[in-house]
Amino acid sequence: MAVMKKKGKKEVPAISTSSLPDVIYMVLFFFMVSTSMRDQDLLVQYKLPDATEVQKLEKKSLVSYIHIGVPTLAMRAKYGTAPKIQLNDSYKTTKDILDFVAAERDQLNESDRASMTICLKADGGTKMGIVADVKQELRKANALKLSYASSKVLSY
Amino acid sequence: MPTDKRKVPEVNSSSQADIAFSLLIFFLVATTMNVDTGIVRVLPPIPDPNVKQEDIKVKERNLFLVFVSGSGNIMAQGEFIQLKQLKDKAKEFILNKYDEENLPEKKETEIAMPDGSKWVYPVSEGVISLQNTRDTGYQIYIQVQNELTRAFNEVRDEVAMAKFGKKLKDLAEEERGVITKAVPLKISEAEPRKIGK
């Protein structure tokens, strides 16, 4: 039978991978555009409280962060498990907040200083005592715009 | 001539994918994706110690006292309430629909509209005072703040709906400013009470 003659293995042609780099580049550009650089290492652990009425923080360059939480596992041996305040890259106390705010404010343009925002990232389990101390220091430092960082949920 | 016909060999581009991959992985590791969200508040400035402060007297009817205890219980206007009830209580206080005696006064205020006209709206004089102890957990505090914010946002939405026929988030910047003046966010956060440890 003439039709059946071609018995030789019909190999499936290899899939061309020449467009793979293009695909990867597209993903890469997406990540470059949609993310921002990680600027500090966290020395404290926190789980932000949940809230529904959150606002986005615009203009990241105007935002300074204060982290409050339990020291990370690696740091616990040295610092224990009591909640700590982290400013920039080290543990600080409430007394250092004045200097911290002044330093952060100096980095900004004259015109932007009024709109400087402090983002307070505190663990949900923290007691209000330490938060209130921080708030009081911020008032003293005249950094009055404060955002209590919380993760957005649709409802409790 | 055979030398003329020799073609330049094509550059092998199979490693381009690897280069792209390594760039991608670098960006995955070195960047963060999360957008910071939070409840925004403006702290009251520290009063000038050289200027004698007069005690601002707030009438009792204009004050809505919320107290969060160390164990996470919520008291509003002297009553023990659940978190879910708080929003409606606060809304009732801010709105005072039927001009009741024990709910806050309203003051007719002229607000400049973006088109240049004036709009007279009875702005509530009420202040919500939020108190807590040093023992209060941050989570419950944020939840209470959240409920109060929600109360204000819903009132603003209602006012925006009545005035402009749109929700607050759909309004233009100037119109939003008008609504913010009509329903100011008045939450006073006292320093925590020293109760307990």
Can you walk me through this structure?
The complex is a heterodimer of chains A (156) and B (197). By secondary structure, chain A is α/β, with parallel strands linked by helices. Chain A has a domain at 44-152: Nucleotidyltransferase, domain 5 (2-Layer Sandwich), CATH 3.30.420. Helices cover 29% and strands 24% of the residues of chain A. Chain A contains 4 helices and 10 strands, in the order αβββββαββαβαββ. Chain A has helices at residues 20-34, 73-79, 97-107, 128-140; strands at residues 36-37, 44-45, 50-51, 55-56, 63-71, 84-87, 90-92, 117-122, 145-149, 151-152. In chain A, strands 2, 5, 6, 7, 8 and 9 form a 6-stranded mixed β-sheet that branches. Chain A has a two-stranded parallel ribbon with strand order 3-10. In chain A, α4 (128-140) links the parallel β8 (117-122) and β9 (145-149). Chain A is elongated. The termini of chain A are far apart. Chain B has 197 residues and is of the alpha/beta class. Chain B has a domain at 60-189. Chain B has 4 helices and 9 strands, in the order αβββββαβββααβ. In chain B, the strands form 2 sheets. A 5-stranded mixed β-sheet of chain B has the order 5-4-3-8-9, covered by helices on one side. A two-stranded antiparallel ribbon of chain B has the order 6-7. In chain B, α2 packs parallel to α3. The longest helix of chain B is centred in the C-terminal third of the chain and has 27 residues, at 138-164. Chains A and B meet through α1, β1, β3, β4 and β8 of A and α1, β1, β2 and α3 of B. β9 (145-149) of chain A pairs antiparallel with β2 (37-42) of chain B.
